[in-house]
Amino acid sequence: MSEGGPQADRTRILLTGAAGYIGAHVHRALLAAGHEVIAVDAMLEVVHGPNVAAPERVSLVDIRNPDALEPLLRGVDVVCHLAAAVPVLDQSALRSGPESGSLAASPRPVQPPSGDGNRPDPDGSAGGDGDGRVGSDGRPESAGGSDIAHELGHAGGRGRAGTGRREDVGHGAGPCVRAPVGEAGHGATRPGPLEMQQAALYATHNDAGTAILLAAMERTGVRRLVLASSVAVYGEGRYRAGRSGPFFPGLRRRGDLDRGLFDHRAPRTGELLTWEPLGEDAPLRPRSAYAASKVAQEHYALAWVASTGSAATVLRYHHVYGEPVDARRIRSAESAVTARFRADLRAGRAPQVFEDGGQVRDFVHVRDIAAATVAAVERRLAGFVPLNIASGRPLTLWEVAATMSKALNGPSPIVTGHYRITDIRHLVADPERARHALDFTARITPAAGLAAYAANSADSR
Q1: Nearest Cα to 410, choosing from 454, 448, 446, 447?
Q2: Gap between the Cα atoms of 145 and 318, Å rounded
Q3: CA distance 163 to 362
Q4: Burial of residue 461 (number of CB atoms within 10 Å: 0-12, 13-18, 19+)
Q5: pLDDT tops 80 at residue 245
Q6: Strand duo 319-321 + 158-159: pairing
Q7: Residue 282 and residue 159: Cα distance in Å, rounded?
Q8: Quick count: other Cβ atoms within 10 Å of Cβ 40?
Q9: Treating both helix axes as pointing N-terminal to C-terminal, what angle do 209-220 and 66-73 enclose, rounded to 10 degrees?
Q10: Do 357 and 398 contact (CB within 8 A), yes or no?
């Protein structure tokens, strides 16, 4: 990976998705840095709601229309591509809890976690993962042992798409549907129909849109891309057992989840697996249609770099929170677990946390996301460079909910024991490459940022 210094001259930038939750912050930050910004957005109903006009200084353009796109690309130095169809939360979920949708529940009493997300099970029972170890070729091994027939596969370090969703952030798909009692056994769940119904939407806007954009960039001679991707491309995180590993496990056993055994375990010994930070070279194993579309975007960008000699910096944003730029309602800003926790607290309800609350994530403020994106625009990195954009300060979901509850003097979080089979246990990525490549370090700590976000009423609607 080659690194370069910041560009000294004013840069002409085409910014797609400029009216979105993250895009509006990036637009403002680029202008504040003195750059010339051509801001466009398709104003998709799934993101903005019906019949919403583009905000000031943003042109209504669908990037899938090359005739509208190509004139805008002439004279552009870099394209900052944030436009995407994204999963949004059904508003009924805000009324019924932060992680709503039909689900299965562990029959065991569940206590709040100790904070490290790696507590041993009280009865010492072993889990039943497939073997997620890495072999001598650097690829994850699979030795079976799981009752899930479609364990995520691996080919050349990149995995096949799964069919599940994630309950804890806005990167997941729609609600899940609980199987009727007796249909598939106690605690059985299956992905809800909304997930794959949305697959064509994501493919049409995210993947076809990116392909059309890259083709237009090639025709107009634009050779630099900054692409907004997502931590969702990884699927499950990286683990280790003692001196063994690393492990990249697949889906957890339904029977283990029913017993409240939420952590991954080594398949042969039953030893508890400990999460580790995930680097950018980890396998990509998406578990939702949205995540699969983000992987496809990255692959199109990689192919474009290889075939044209151009450069693409890919920003894998972690779990984003914070207020929108203005009073406009942006549905994607309401879909993260932090927004759902806050909605419950403002309604006087205790925030509800799935499993045992020990799931570990990295939450990064939207203003830090914007700062990292500006840094990527201003630095000339050669080739294809994926970067984790994160705070570097992981928290459990229990800690997130408790921090927000304390900031509002609200009720303590409730740990429900509920689960979805395809949910991810721990997912924390290493931000060091971004620190070196972009000279970027998140300035807002999650502890302070989440408390301020919970207490802020500026975007309360």
Answers
A1: 454
A2: 31
A3: 23
A4: exposed
A5: no
A6: unpaired
A7: 10
A8: 24
A9: 40
A10: yes
Distances (CA, A) of 302 to 151, 308, 311, 312, 383: 26, 10, 9, 7, 9
377 residue type, one letter: V
For 283, 321, 329, 368, 409, the CA distances from 246, given in Å and listed in that order, are 12, 30, 42, 30, 41
Q: Which long-range contacts (CB under 8 A, 24 or more apart) does 294-298 make?
A: 294/84, 294/206, 294/229, 294/230, 294/232, 294/233, 295/158, 295/161, 295/233, 296/203, 296/206, 296/207, 296/210, 297/84, 297/206, 297/207, 297/210, 297/227, 297/229, 298/227, 298/229, 298/233, 298/386
User: Cis link prior to 246 (omega < 30° from 0)?
Assistant: yes
CA distance 264 to 256: 10
**Higher per-residue confidence, 148 vs 134:** 134
Single-letter code of the amino acid located at 140: P
Is 122 buried (19+), middle (13-18) or exposed (0-12) by CB count in 10 A? Answer: exposed
Residue 51 CA: distances (Å) to CA of 46, 82, 114: 11, 21, 47
Tokens of 362: 């990295």
CB atoms within 10 A of CB 448: 12
pLDDT per residue over 334-356, tens digit each?
778 899 999 999 999 999 999 99
User: Is there a contact between 290 and 195 (Cβ–Cβ < 8 Å)?
Assistant: no
Spatial CA neighbour of 139 closest among 152, 128, 148: 152
According to DSSP, residue 181 is labeled T
Through-space distance between the first and last CA atoms of the chain, rounded to whole angstroms: 45
Apex 29 CA angle, 25 and 34, nearest 5: 150
For residue range 72-121, list pLDDT tens digits in order: 999 999 999 999 998 876 544 433 333 333 355 555 556 665 544 333 23
E-only strand ranges, 72-178: 78-81, 104-105, 154-155, 158-159, 177-178
Single pTM value for the model:
0.80
Q: Rg of the chain's alpha carbons, rounded to an integer?
A: 21
Which residues face 79 on adjacent strands?
14, 225
* Residue 431 CB-half CA count within 13 A: 22
Please identify which residue in the block is written with the tokens 């009324």. 95
CB 437 within 8 A of CB 353: no
